[in-house]
Amino acid sequence: MAKRLTLIFLIASHLFVSGVTSNNLTIENKCDYTVWPGILTSIGSLSTSTSGFALKKGESRAIHAPSLWSGQIWGRTLCSINSTGKFSCATGDCNSGEIECSGRDSNSPRSLVELSIDGHNINSYRVSVVDGYNFPLQVVPQRTFKSERCTDVSCDVVDLNQLACPYELMVVDEEERPIACTNPCRISNCYTSSSYTQIFKNACPTARVDNGDNNYFACPSSTDYFITFCPSLTPIPTR
């Protein structure tokens, strides 16, 4: 019996030391409306095959990530299905025609989380509004095995849609209500700050706002990530 317990301990220790661990990505929706997260994987694969789903107000979903994964996570808003069964969203749409993005990226203004998990080294993460902004979000890393805290990153200082987005960058719905703010860097690559990018920087001081910013926040491996939509603000009404 003692030999069996020793063997189990050695196997578990080997798996831990060799980096065969995983990270949980928990996506929580605190917005006053339903948000449809979209996920685009560039390296590795998630335990859940879905690349898009719905989260009602107050709901959350934990996704098991492997020790090596890289991708993007964002939220889609004001989504619906038309008479032919095509699924689409007013912001963050990935143009797949279905609730799952299935490897399709979005060319719509959206607040974005970029995350790279490396179980053997350092994880990197950031919030980006280079494509634009559709609602506030926050990334909170939580170490699994150690007590040190990593940096929280967010974009929720100011509601860009309602308070700070210039009219010429504003995206509105059928009732002329602002639902997103376009970053000019999405259309033409910009590598230096401008009056427009400064507006995004004021609202999202820790986020990437232009193409010249290639910095990431770093956190040791074996970290869980909590991604919250509307951590403190709920900027757009439901349709």
TrEMBL record:
Origin superkingdom: Eukaryota
Cysteines paired by S-S bonds: C31-C230, C79-C89, C94-C101, C150-C219, C155-C204, C165-C181, C185-C190
Sorted UniProt keywords: Disulfide bond, Signal
InterPro entries: Osmotin/thaumatin-like_sf, Thaumatin, Thaumatin_CS
Protein name: Thaumatin-like protein
Keyword Disulfide bond appears in the UniProt entry: yes
Keyword Endoplasmic reticulum applies: no
Signal peptide residue numbers: 1-22
Pfam families cross-referenced by the UniProt entry: Thaumatin
